[in-house]
Specification:
There is one protein chain. The radius of gyration is 20 Å and the shape is globular. The chain contains 12 helices and 7 strands. The two termini are 35 Å apart. The longest helix is centred in the N-terminal third of the chain and has 24 residues. Strand 5 and strand 6 form a beta hairpin. It has one domain. The model has no long low-confidence stretch (mean pLDDT 88). The strands form 2 sheets. It has a 4-stranded mixed sheet, with helices on one face. Strands 1-3-2 form a 3-stranded antiparallel sheet. By secondary structure, it is α+β, with helices and mostly antiparallel strands.
């Protein structure tokens, strides 16, 4: 239709899923791909009428809500907490499990859910595929394959370790985060207020990682994201490396606090907390836009 009638076509769905079909035209050079991710904080704020004095409290409340229920449009616009949870459970069962498992012909739905649950319980920590496989009595290759499917279909975000030729950088594992924390909280069955939760630090770190990833994809920003850890245990939560090899180190703190720079290459250091996260992310977007 595009070739013969010169019409504009908007097609929804995952380009990754097209590869499961044996007969399709790649349309190379003839299409623009746009990401339809969960709403970003920036998108929500830009579409909310606020007075200047309301902005600070709005952003605090919004970040709390997104960390508990996520930011899929139908979740964000729902007023009922019970409906939010019910809808999230349906979304997880219908899309994350049913659709992806059917399309990829995943043989073990329970294993797929158990893998995601294991990851959900250790956000903010490095993920060992061997450890997950061993705890679930599964093959490492199978676990790896399932995780890659969830990454390609925008359920999980992979944050690899930054390596230099310096021997101090030791990690070979990745950190895995969720694009949407509502989906993550469905897995751990916890929708309590953040102040009541022992995992609030990891949840906040996931929130920041997801917002940066959404900004990167929405605005087509040119940088790669990593974490960094040394033998002594010192680490940097996020290292952004642009295409000119400029480095921006981000330390994520749920509460205010000071940090000491440990990254071995010349860099700019930023501290993100629950009070300044929006301004800091806007600065990142500006620096890499």
């Amino acid at each position: 239709m595009h070739d013969h009638f010169h019409v504009k076509i908007i097609a929804t769905g995952s380009s990754e899923l097209r590869k499961k079909s044996q007969d399709f035209d790649s349309l190379a050079g003839r299409y623009i791909e746009t990401y339809c991710l969960p709403l970003s904080i920036e998108e929500i704020k830009d579409n909310t009428k606020l007075k200047a004095y309301e902005e600070s409290s709005f952003l605090r409340s919004l970040s709390s809500q997104v960390q508990i229920y996520g930011s899929y449009p139908e979740i964000y616009t729902s007023k009922s907490q019970a409906i939010k949870i019910e809808t999230l459970e349906y979304m997880f069962d219908a899309y994350v499990l049913k659709d992806i498992i059917t399309i990829y012909k995943i043989k073990n739905a329970k294993l797929a859910k158990d893998i995601l649950t294991k990851i959900a319980l250790q956000i903010g920590s490095e993920v060992s595929l061997r450890e997950i496989a061993s705890s679930l009595s599964a093959n490492v290759q199978t676990v790896t394959s399932y995780i890659e499917i969830f990454i390609k279909n925008y359920i999980l975000i992979a944050l690899p370790a930054f390596r230099t030729n310096l021997r101090r950088a030791v990690s070979t594992n990745r950190k895995l985060f969720f694009y949407d924390l509502g989906i993550r909280n469905v897995l751990v069955k916890d929708f309590r207020d953040l102040n009541l939760r022992p995992d609030k630090g990891g949840v906040f770190e996931n929130f920041i990682v997801a917002e940066i990833e959404k900004a990167k994809k929405n605005r087509k920003l040119k940088f790669n994201a990593y974490f960094y850890r040394e033998f002594g245990g010192k680490e940097v939560d996020i290292v952004l490396e642009d295409y000119k090899k400029n480095y921006y180190c981000l330390e994520i703190k749920y509460s205010k606090g000071l940090v000491k720079s440990v990254f071995p290459i010349k860099h700019t250091l930023e501290i993100l907390n629950s009070e300044n996260y929006f301004a800091r992310i806007k600065k990142i977007v500006k620096n890499h836009g």
